[in-house]
Amino acid sequence: MATTPAAAFEALMSGVTSWDVPKDPIPSELLLTGEAAFPVMVNDQGQVLIAASSYGQGRLVVASHEGYLLEAGLAPFLLNAVGWLCPSHGAPAGVHPSLASLASILQGSGVEAQVQPEPGESLGVYCINAYDDTMTAELIQSVKLGGGLLIGGQAWYWASQHGSDKVLSKFPGNQVTSVVGVYFMDIFGDRGQLKVSKKGPRDPLHVGYRAETETGQQTPQPCTILVEPQDPYSSYITPRPVTGAPLPLDTGGGCMLLEAFGWEPFIQLFAEYQTLSDIPKDNPGKMNLWVQKFSEKVQRN
Prior knowledge:
alpha/beta, 2 domains, seven-stranded mixed β-sheet, four-stranded antiparallel β-sheet, 29% helix
């Protein structure tokens, strides 16, 4: 069984030569903050569309649209995902009724799969969409005790009905995947060029903010930042491009300041960073400027 992110990525991508994603589904960008979470599918804009992680004794694979779990063209990856998620060879996969055609894809490739409304002790893997809020505790406990979970969905429509400010904490899928630091966001995922990586992509963290246009409308804008483990400031996220704002993380991968102050100061700060022209090029200078600006936003020293 693959135990490191590199080995896990290799197992998930074995034999996958292309991403034959369906054209109609519009995915949601995924936000990765968890220490064990890693990207699997990343588009040419740097947005994560499929991610994976471990939790307790089990594992999760998260897809940015449930349509990806129903696409026969993605069968090589789906088979790898179920195999990687399964704690014991040959254990059956359970499939939620909303993903019934996934059971047919798996069965057609020799995997024992059965449609059932909830996970069970006899199952090695359970597959479900991200919209069910009736089994949150059960799904988390199942993974924690060694089961596998394949979950897919998009959050942009839910956000249009319930509010973007509630997505991270209230969207049903996030109530499950947040335990590993993977979040469905309300930002559309670009469906452009998708390349298959031979090695695991670098770990991007995308923080969404809303920039106001000339007409006064607010539109989602992604700010892309990448982990630089070789950097002496490895407990930070270093921005790409360099005009972005660094985001401090604690050693467990959680956003310390996010928990303390919420998203609003980050949204304001990222918007302000797009207007600055004198950002230092060295990391200490960037960090000092960021701390100064963030302190101004939250009115704390």
